[in-house]
Specification:
By secondary structure, the chain is mainly α. Helices cover about 60% and strands about 10% of the residues. A two-stranded antiparallel ribbon has the order 1-2. Helix 1 packs across helix 3 and helix 2 packs across helix 3.
Length: about 120
């Protein structure tokens, strides 16, 4: 699966939230400063060519929708992060966040509880 650029991911986040949208609706959901209509339209067409979105015709325009679920992309991205930066070790990744104080004890306990639930 291809990786998304930051701009592509921003648009995919909007499409995952809205489920279906035209370019104008996508722009309305993006933060300030709003990108130009042509910029968003171009990025959506790139996402289409990469197989991330498709469209249905509506009048003279298009309504775009994601072909890939957010969960699927999140899983793939996380696995790539773990593989590329933590030698494929989830333990190394968690240890990194604990050492850098990006995760507190309560959050770590919550993660451990979730792991235990998944084992059952």
């Amino acid at each position: 699966m291809k990786q998304l650029t930051k701009a592509e991911e921003d648009i995919m986040q909007v499409l995952w939230q809205l489920e279906k949208a035209n370019v104008k609706q996508i722009i309305e959901q993006l933060p300030q400063p709003k990108p130009a209509y042509n910029t968003v339209s171009t990025i959506v067409r790139i996402l289409e060519s990469k197989g991330f979105v498709d469209y249905e015709k509506k009048g003279k325009g298009h309504i775009y929708f994601p072909l890939l679920k957010k969960q699927e992309y999140s899983n793939q991205s996380l696995n790539k992060l773990v593989d590329n930066y933590f030698q494929g070790s989830f333990k190394s990744m968690v240890s990194f966040f604990v050492k850098k104080n990006d995760i507190n004890l309560n959050e770590l306990e919550s993660v451990l509880e979730e792991i235990e639930k998944q084992k059952k």
